[in-house]
Amino acid sequence: MIPMEVQTRVDVFEQIFLVFLGLGTLVGVVVVAYTLYNAYKYRDGAAKTADKDTPTLGELPTGGAGGKKLFLSFGLSAIIVISLVVWTYGMLLYVEDPGDDIPQEDAIEVDVVGDGFAWFFEYENGAESTNTMTVPEDTPVWINVTGGDVWHTFGISDLRVKADAIPGENDETWFMAEEAGETHEIECFELCGDGHSQMTGTVEVVEEEEFEEFLEEEAPDEDENGDDEENGADEEENGADDEENGDDADDENGDDEENGDDADDDEENGDDEDTDEDADDGGDV
User: 152-156 and 128-130: which strand pairing?
Assistant: First the structure.
């Protein structure tokens, strides 16, 4: 489990939003207040003063005090805007790659495929699910997203997640859900066809123990692999028996040939006996 001080994507985008909102509100209040102040100060019918900054009809404003106020306002604005851009860019880099703040060994990986207006998920141990992604609480989840048919975009608005699902390409991003029992809707952010609006799913956040049970239940059946190995062993045994039977057949055939040779010898001996009898008959004559 990751320590709670680690910032999630939601935390980062909320900080960016609050900073922009606060700074925008402050600038708006200052500008509006200064405008109202000058509108009141230089209103028609007000007592005229010898103020050198008083604008004269038809003349360009000098910015007050020889342009010092104008220079000061532009300088402060530039500093604020540049600082805001640099800070925001650094926060977005963290969103893309948190680096050492989230060790890889503490995270889980899920392969995501968008295909046929549905979402398919595969976990590290080979467990699979469709349209429902189960993740543990307070744990970084790295997702590797691709498309199976056309362009899709995997999105979880609540968790500020968006990744393109393009056939033949992979888009990697991460997120972290904080509380078990929460559910978040998965949507497709790319107009992908007739079933685009129905291409939805759910992220279910569970406790670590429940997630481990889920992986065990959905893992590929090892018995099937064992049966395949057993069948392979039986086939090998049958092959060995066939070879043995072949050897026996060869031996029997060899014995038959030997018997045939013996028979040939017997016939030859019989011929010899007949020859001897003929010779004896000749002698008697």
Answer: unpaired
Cα 114 to Cα 152: distance, rounded to the nearest angstrom: 6
**Residues found in the chain:** 285
- Report the SS3 class of residue 183: strand
Q: What is the pTM of this model?
A: 0.65
Domain boundaries of the chain, sorted by first residue: 1-39+80-101, 104-218
Show pLDDT as tens, one digit a residue, over the chain (285 residues). Answer: 444 467 888 999 999 999 999 999 999 999 999 999 988 887 877 666 656 666 666 666 665 556 677 788 889 889 999 999 999 999 999 888 887 777 677 789 999 999 989 999 999 989 999 999 999 999 999 999 999 999 999 999 999 999 999 999 999 999 999 889 999 999 999 999 999 999 999 999 999 999 999 999 988 876 555 454 455 545 555 555 555 555 554 544 444 444 444 444 444 444 444 434 443 444 332
Contacts of 21 (CB under 8 A, 6+ apart): none
Q: Regarding the domain delimited by 104-218, which CATH topology (the fold level of the hierarchy) does it fall under? A: Immunoglobulin-like (2.60.40)
Distance CA 90, CA 249 (A): 81
Distance CA 134, CA 141 (A): 10
